[in-house]
Design brief:
about 500 residues; 4-stranded mixed beta sheet; 22 helices; globular; Cytochrome P450; Cyt_P450; iron; Cyt_P450_CS
C-alpha cells in the first residue's frame, strides 16, 4: 500500500510540474499568432540545449519559418514572447515608441550578480538615462581621436610582432587567442590607463584575469542562465557568474586608478575620468558608487575584449581566405601610407572606404548579438501581422525579440547573404551602416554606446596587420566555416586558424 502511495504522489508531483511547464503553450494559438511548437521545459530552445544546431542557426530558422508574418511566437523555456520580423515595426518599437519599450530583459538581481546588474545594459528607466548621460561623452568623435594614438601604438606593435616571426617559428595561429591580446591591451590603456603588452608578456594579470572572466565556457554559461532565470537558486547555493576574485580585482583596479589620479593630478580622456568628474555633481542617490563605476568599466571591458576580439577575428579570417579581398584592402592601406608619408592619422583611417566595408560586412555576417530585446512597460498595439488579421496588444512586462542574425541573413535585404562581399557596403558605408536592416550595434536610444570605439579599434588593428602581413589558409583552416553548437555565442566549431607571414607583395611604408 505504501509503495503505491509513493508512486501516486510522485506521479501527482510530475503532473503538476508538467502542467506548470506547459500551461502557456496555447498562448499564441488563442491569439491567432503563428509559432513554432515548443518542447516542455526547454520551449523553442531545445535544439540548442541538445546541441543539434547553433544558436545562430536557431535564430535564422525562427526568422524564416513564417516569412509572410510581421511577428511570430517564440517560447523562451515556458515564457511566450514575440519575434518581430518587420523592419518598420522594429523602428516603431525601438525608436518612435521607445517610451513603451525602454528596457532590456537582461536584469540580474544585484545580490546575485553585481557586475551585470549595475552595468548600463542592465539598468532600467531613469537610472539607465542618468548613467547613459554620464558615459556618452566618453565616446564622442573628439574622445575617439584622442584615443587613436594609443590604439595605433598597440596595433603597430602587433603588426610588427607577427611580421618579425622567423621562418623556423610557427606561423599558424588560432586568431581568437592571438587577437584577444590586442583588444585587451587597447582597453587596458584607453579605459584603465594601464600599459601592457599581452603578446610579449602573455601572463600579465590584466590579461589572465580578463580572459578568465570573459571566457564563457559550459560551466559559466550554465551559471549565467541560472542567474537570469533562477536567481532564488543562485542565492540559495551562492552561485555567481563571476568568481569573487574577478569582482575584487576589477574593483581594486578602479579604486587604485582613481586614488592615483586624485593624488597626482592625472587626467586622461577615458571612461574612468568621466565618472570621476561626476562626483559631487549628481545629487543625493544619483552619485556613482565604486561598485557602479566598476560595473560600467567591466561592461566596457567585457564588450571590448571578447566581442571586439571575436569580430576582428572573423573579419581577418574572411579577408585571409579571400585573395581578391586581401589584395584590394592592402592596396588601399598602401595608398594611405603613401598619402600620409608614413604618419597615419585618425582622419586617414576613417576615410578608408574599403576597410570600413570589410568591417561592416563582417558585422553583418557575424553579429555578436544574434537577438536583442525590449520589455514593454505600458500596453502597445501592434498592427495586424498579415492583412486581414486582428491587431495584437503587447501587455506590460511582455518581451519582444528583434532577430538581428535573421534579418542580416535575409536575401531580401542582402543578396547571397552567406557570401562575404564587402562591395555591398563600399559605395556608401555610412549610409549602409545606418540602414534599417543593419542592426549589429542595436537600434534606437539603447544602441551600443561603444560602437564608435569598437569600429575604430577594429580599423586600426586590421590596418596594421594587413599592412605588415599576408594571411592565408593553413591545414587547420575550416572552409566554409561551421558554427559550433557548444556555445550560445557565435563561434566557429574548430577555431579560426590562419597562416600569418610577412608580406610577400609590395611592403607598406614603415612609420
Amino acid at each position: 500500500m505504501g509503495y503505491w502511495l509513493i508512486i501516486a504522489v510522485v506521479m501527482a508531483v510530475l503532473a503538476v510540474v508538467y502542467h506548470r511547464a506547459t500551461r502557456s503553450f496555447c498562448f499564441f494559438e488563442k491569439r491567432g499568432i503563428p509559432y513554432v511548437k515548443p518542447v516542455p521545459f526547454l520551449g523553442n530552445l531545445w535544439e540548442v540545449f541538445l546541441r543539434q544546431i547553433s544558436f545562430a542557426e536557431l535564430a535564422e530558422k525562427l526568422y524564416n519559418v513564417y516569412p509572410e508574418s510581421k511577428y511570430v511566437g517564440f517560447f523562451e523555456f515556458s515564457t511566450p514572447l514575440l519575434v518581430i520580423r518587420d523592419l518598420d515595426l522594429i523602428k516603431s518599437i525601438t525608436m518612435k515608441n521607445f517610451d513603451h519599450f525602454p528596457n532590456h530583459k537582461m536584469a540580474f538581481n544585484p545580490d546575485v550578480e553585481p557586475l551585470f546588474s549595475k552595468n548600463l545594459f542592465s539598468l532600467c528607466n531613469e537610472r539607465w538615462r542618468e548613467v547613459r548621460t554620464i558615459l556618452t561623452p566618453a565616446f564622442t568623435s573628439s574622445k575617439m581621436k584622442s584615443m587613436f594614438a594609443l590604439m595605433r601604438d598597440c596595433a603597430k606593435e602587433y603588426g610588427d610582432y607577427f611580421a618579425s616571426l622567423s621562418a623556423d617559428q610557427s606561423r599558424e595561429f588560432e586568431l581568437k587567442d592571438a587577437f584577444t591580446r590586442y583588444t585587451n591591451d587597447v582597453i587596458a590603456t584607453c579605459a584603465f590607463g594601464i600599459d601592457v603588452n599581452s603578446m610579449r608578456n602573455p601572463k600579465n594579470t590584466f590579461y589572465v584575469y580578463g580572459r578568465e572572466a570573459t571566457n564563457f565556457g559550459k560551466s559559466k554559461a550554465l551559471r549565467f542562465f541560472a542567474a537570469r532565470y533562477f536567481p532564488w537558486l543562485c542565492r540559495l547555493f551562492g552561485i555567481k557568474i563571476f568568481e569573487q576574485k574577478f569582482t575584487d580585482f576589477f574593483k581594486d583596479v578602479i579604486a587604485s586608478t582613481i586614488k592615483a589620479r586624485d593624488a597626482n593630478g592625472i587626467v586622461r580622456p577615458d571612461m574612468i575620468q568621466l565618472m570621476m568628474e561626476t562626483r559631487g555633481k549628481l545629487g543625493p542617490g544619483k552619485e556613482l558608487t565604486i561598485e557602479e563605476m566598476t560595473a560600467q568599466a567591466f561592461n566596457f571591458f567585457f564588450g571590448g575584449l571578447e566581442s571586439v576580439a571575436t569580430l576582428v577575428c572573423f573579419a581577418a579570417y574572411m579577408v585571409g581566405i579571400g585573395d581578391e579581398v586581401q589584395k584590394k584592402l592592402q592596396n588601399e592601406i598602401d595608398k594611405v601610407f603613401e598619402d600620409c608619408n608614413g604618419q597615419v592619422t585618425y582622419e586617414a583611417i576613417n576615410s578608408m572606404k574599403y576597410l570600413e566595408a570589410v568591417i561592416l560586412e563582417s558585422l553583418r555576417m557575424f553579429p555578436i548579438a544574434l537577438f536583442t530585446d525590449r520589455v514593454c512597460v505600458k500596453p502597445f498595439e501592434l498592427p495586424p501581422r498579415v492583412p486581414g488579421a486582428k491587431p495584437y496588444v503587447v501587455q506590460r512586462d511582455d518581451c519582444v525579440w528583434i532577430p538581428i542574425y535573421g534579418i542580416q541573413h535575409d536575401p531580401q535585404y542582402y543578396p547571397e547573404p552567406k557570401k562575404f562581399n564587402p562591395d555591398r557596403f563600399y559605395d556608401d558605408p555610412k549610409q549602409m551602416a545606418n540602414c534599417p536592416s543593419f542592426l549589429s550595434f542595436g537600434v534606437g536610444p539603447r544602441m551600443c554606446i561603444g560602437n564608435k570605439f569598437a569600429l575604430l579599434q577594429m580599423k586600426v588593428f586590421l590596418f596594421y596587420i594587413f599592412a605588415k602581413c599576408d594571411l592565408a589558409p593553413c591545414a587547420k583552416s575550416c572552409i566554409p566555416l561551421k558554427l559550433e553548437t557548444k556555445s550560445f555565442a557565435i563561434m566557429p566549431e574548430d577555431g579560426l586558424w590562419l597562416k600569418i607571414e610577412p608580406r610577400n607583395a609590395k611592403k607598406a611604408m614603415p612609420e
